[in-house]
């Protein structure tokens, strides 16, 4: 292992989102209450990195192309053929059983890097470099070889995992607030969205994270709430705007009216009708 510690990876953007626990013999986790807005978004954004730590020691680094919530579900109830999940389930339980705490860190970049017309997956790029540098023991470091979680391992049969979601539940649709907006040129071409004053009343503070989701299953987008761009203080969604524009352009025409729901102070969902 290298001498990189928990503090080192937090310095590049990893945040503490919780810890693993054992309840009734089963692995589960508890999310941190220190910054619930950030934790909630971190659990839902696709293409995230995560790390397991004991005190300052980095035990494991992984990547998910899905959300952390879905990834951690497979750790809690691994299927019989999911070797990676079984190994980490056993390692976490063994560490907790000897009285140690296994903390969970997450890296969910909001700002997207681009090369020409192509978005660069920062999490995927960092995973290889971090694992080579840190060489965490649960990634195979004990054998002198750093091993990453590949897309093939992520595609293991999730049907074997019978766990339901654990952690914080999202706002039910019964409490969602519905609004609409017209796709003017800026919205349609650039995906920069002003949600309006009425919808803004239900959203969080300036600079807080905002998860943008889509009714038809389009990949969720990690954005931020900006309340300084508009004189009214109304929210502008900033971050991941190219992906939002691509969704608009693939389903609507410029000038169409699009409906959306505010599902909580840090989550909105665009509707297809």
Automatic annotation (TrEMBL):
InterPro entries (alphabetical): EndoII-like_GIY-YIG, GIY-YIG_endonuc, Host_DNA_Degrad_Endo
The organism of origin for this protein: Albidovulum sediminicola
The protein, known as: GIY-YIG nuclease family protein
PROSITE patterns: GIY_YIG
Residue span(s) of domain GIY-YIG: 45-140
């Amino acid at each position: 292992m290298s001498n990189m510690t928990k503090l080192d990876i937090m310095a590049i953007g990893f945040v503490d989102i919780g810890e693993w626990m054992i309840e009734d013999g089963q692995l589960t986790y508890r999310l941190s209450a220190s910054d619930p807005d950030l934790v909630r978004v971190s659990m839902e954004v696709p293409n995230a990195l995560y790390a397991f730590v004991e005190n300052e020691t980095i035990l494991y680094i992984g990547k998910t192309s899905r959300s952390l919530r879905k990834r951690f579900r497979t750790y809690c109830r691994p299927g019989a053929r999911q070797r990676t999940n079984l190994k980490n389930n056993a390692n976490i339980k063994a560490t907790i059983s000897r009285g140690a705490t296994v903390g969970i860190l997450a890296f969910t970049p909001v700002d997207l890097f681009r090369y020409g017309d192509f978005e660069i997956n920062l999490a995927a790029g960092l995973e290889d470099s971090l694992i080579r540098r840190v060489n965490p023991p649960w990634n195979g470091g004990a054998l002198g070889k750093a091993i990453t979680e590949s897309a093939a391992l992520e595609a293991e049969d999730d049907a074997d995992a019978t766990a339901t979601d654990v952690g914080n539940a999202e706002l039910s649709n019964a409490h969602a607030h519905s609004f609409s907006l017209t796709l003017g040129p800026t919205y349609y071409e650039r995906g920069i969205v002003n949600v309006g004053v009425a919808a803004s009343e239900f959203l969080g503070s300036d600079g807080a994270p905002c998860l943008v989701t889509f009714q038809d299953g389009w990949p969720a987008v990690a954005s931020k709430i900006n309340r300084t761009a508009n004189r009214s203080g109304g929210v502008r969604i900033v971050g991941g705007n190219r992906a939002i524009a691509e969704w608009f352009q693939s389903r609507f025409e410029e000038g169409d009216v699009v409906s959306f729901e505010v599902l909580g102070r840090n989550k909105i969902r665009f509707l297809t009708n």
